[in-house]
UniProtKB/TrEMBL annotation:
This is Isoprenyl transferase. Its cofactor is Mg(2+). Its EC number is 2.5.1.-. It comes from Rhizobium redzepovicii. GO terms for molecular function: ditrans,polycis-undecaprenyl-diphosphate synthase [(2E,6E)-farnesyl-diphosphate specific] activity; magnesium ion binding.
């Protein structure tokens, strides 16, 4: 997939990878098999994003609400994350991919946190695609942590409440330094954000695809990028067509 194919290539694409369990259920397989197949889709999608010229790819890997799932499933998901990093980190590093992890780190087990920190440290100077892994992530939690940080500065006299701006809030989020997503894709036919990048999605385009995540292929990704390229993004202003008529 070549960058030149698309008139407009989004700088940042975020994906809600949904439907692993239902994919497995349709085939009479345990849910764990859906998650394992989903890891293969992650590898293909990372390669496709790099080939398309996308600069940032954010994947919703594990939400702060996912801890409510059965213990065996949570354990398997954590095991898959560890296996992915151990198996794929060297290859991602060779491909000049930078890894950034967002989400609450304070309650993570040491073995998981250590691997995530290792992935970030190993790839911190890479300059191609930035792969953002949303792990133990919930947008309301992220915003709450940012507000607490600002409140502490106000309480300590380092900041006046009236000086708090959207830009200042943005700088305290987990995604500080990362551009807002131009495009958010959700698989499995569901059409909601599920507590994902609520602040950052203010002007994102949305594309919902019916396929479950394990079936998300480079071709489906390409189709989503083509749909994005055909949209007229206004950011609260006039469309380019309307502006042209008014001149």
């Amino acid at each position: 997939m070549s960058e030149s194919v698309f008139v407009t290539v989004p700088e940042h694409v975020a994906i809600i990878m949904d439907g692993n369990g239902r994919w497995a259920k349709q085939r009479g397989l345990p849910r764990t098999m859906g998650h394992r197949k989903g890891v293969e889709a992650v590898r293909e999608t990372v390669r496709a994003a790099g080939a398309a010229g996308i600069k940032y790819l954010t994947l919703f890997a594990f939400s702060s609400e996912n801890w409510r799932r059965p213990e065996a499933e949570v354990s398997d998901l954590l095991g898959l994350l560890k296996a992915f990093i151990r198996r794929d980190l060297a290859e991602l590093h060779r491909q000049n991919v930078r890894i950034k992890v967002i989400g609450d780190r304070h309650s993570l087990r040491n073995d998981i946190l250590g691997l995530l920190l290792e992935a970030e440290e190993t790839t911190k100077d890479n300059t191609a695609l930035t792969l953002v892994i949303a792990f133990n992530y919930g947008s309301r939690d992220e915003i709450s942590r940012a507000v607490v940080s600002l409140a502490r500065d106000v309480e300590a006299g380092r900041l006046r409440a009236q000086d708090i701006t959207p830009s200042l809030i943005n700088a305290r989020l987990d995604t500080a330094g990362i551009p807002d997503p131009d495009l958010i894709i959700r698989t499995s036919g569901e059409e909601r954000l599920s507590n994902f990048l609520l602040w950052q999605a203010a002007y994102s385009e949305f594309i919902f695809v019916p396929e479950y995540w394990p079936d998300f292929s480079p071709e489906i990704f390409r189709s989503a990028l083509e749909k994005f390229a055909s949209r007229d993004r206004r950011f609260g202003g006039l469309s380019s067509q309307a502006a042209a008529v008014g001149t």
